[in-house]
Amino acid sequence: MSGGLFDLAGRSALVTGASSGIGRELAVALAGAGAHVILAARRRDRLEEAADRIRQSGARASVLDIDLDDLDALQWVAARCADLGAAPDILVNAAGVNPRLPAAEVDVGTWQRTLHIHLTVPFVLAQALVGRMQRRSWGRIINIASLQSVRAFPNGLPYGTAKGGVVQMTRAMAEAWSPHGINCNAIAPGFFPTELTAPVFDDSAQAQRNAEQTMIGRNGRLEDLHGIAIFLAANASDYITGQTVFVDGGFTAK
């Protein structure tokens, strides 16, 4: 297994939402640090593209096409990872949806699916994988929070509710599993250009206002997430658990 503070050689990481955006970028980061990454999402063609990018760098990547809406499929994720030659000791819950609707237009189905993807799926996947982590007395769970975990944005009632829940779920996971060597933390990104944030970045004036709201003076670049992902997945974070780290250029501190 890995020995250095930031060395992930010998580790396996399951990353959901890995076909695009933040999930894909976190998979690239962990693979670059030595982990065998399993990229999970529905769009197999996009997963294969991401996996090829990782393999071309000399790292190891496998593809797991899975419908996260299917609870039965989630129960079998450990077995499917084993078929790929991996027993994940790192879980990154990066899959997300953001309906961006006025509160009056949010129907029950939209509400339930938003909470399902951001809260139910991470919990069920963690439950499926923590047994093996406990037997090894080592594991990492990394959830993805948001600026909306602590701020209310327009047209963000379901998403903000779910992301607020991610912060508390991370604390509760840490309370349950950190005594067994499994550290649970969350990353809360600021404004980064992804498919999910396209409506924000398509409005250049709004994107500029967001950049000016940060202390650093710019919006995020996806590579800005590499360091924190490796840190929270590696031995360097051995004494850090239950925390949410905002990678937002100082947006929430200003």
Number of domains: 1
- Identify the CATH architecture: 3-Layer(aba) Sandwich
**Helix proportion range:** 40-55%
C-alpha termini separation: 41 Å
Please report the number of helical segments. 9
Note the main attributes of this structure.
254 residues, Rossmann fold, alpha/beta, seven-stranded parallel beta sheet
Describe this structure in words.
It is a single chain. This protein has one domain: NAD(P)-binding Rossmann-like Domain (Rossmann fold), CATH 3.40.50. The longest helix is centred in the middle third of the chain and has 29 residues. It is globular, with a radius of gyration of 17 Å. The chain has a 7-stranded parallel sheet, with helices on both faces. It is 43% helix and 15% strand. With 254 residues, it is an alpha/beta fold. Helix 6 links the parallel strand 5 and strand 6.
SSE topology sketch:
Elements: E1 12-16, H1 21-32, E2 36-41, H2 44-56, E3 61-65, H3 71-75, H4 77-83, E4 90-93, H5 108-136, E5 139-144, H6 157-177, E6 182-189, H7 198-201, H8 204-213, H9 226-233, E7 244-247
Helix pairs in contact: 1-2, 1-9, 5-6
